[in-house]
Amino acid sequence: NAGVTQTPKFRILKIGQSMTLQCTQDMNHNYMYWYRQDPGMGLKLIYYSVGAGITDKGEVPNGYNVSRSTTEDFPLRLELAAPSQTSVYFCASSPKASGANVLTFGAGSRLTVL
Amino acid sequence: DAKTTQPNSMESNEEEPVHLPCNHSTISGTDYIHWYRQLPSQGPEYVIHGLTSNVNNRMASLAIAEDRKSSTLILHRATLRDAAVYYCIGGSARQLTFGSGTQLTVLP
Description:
- The structure holds two protein chains of two kinds.
- By secondary structure, chain A is mainly β.
- Chain A has strands spanning about 5, 10-15, 20-25, 30-35, 45-50, 55, 65, 75-80, 85-95, 105, 110-114.
- Helices cover about 0% and strands about 45% of the residues of chain B.
- The interface of A and B includes residues 48, 98, 101 and 102 of A.
């Protein structure tokens, strides 16, 4: 079982470049999430989606965009990379929530912006 | 989302029980209490969750105070592989907010 798969695992960007972090899950989960984790800190929610075609902002959405065209995929787009976006990014998914909400996380994508 | 408070770090000896506390005084009546842990260089993984009653699974036990303002994650016999950051989270089903967690060190 693959679970939640993120690509790439590592990436270095120059300031102003753009890129897309890919996330796919094979568990038929309705909910998907993007978090970022800065060194020594907890995770902050960037965006989430409750199903195909539906996305919503989390705690720190500025500088990012998302789309959800299928149940399986939830890519995160950085349009103009800035040093402040240097972080580890985690994608997660969960079944349709009814109170309890158990998330399955990917292994993470480490992004450095120079 | 409920604000949670956890100690920054704790230590335990190998094969001894560990009690990780969490305060969540602002949790709403319908929010579950979740615990996740993050091993070094990995994504967080689910440990356990509960609403009002104490819960047990193969990884741990969760003891929830009667007033739901605090809970305790219990690892019955800590192993070196349990060394991780443990996050206590109380929040809505759509948005789970992770604080800084408790760094658990297990001493051999």
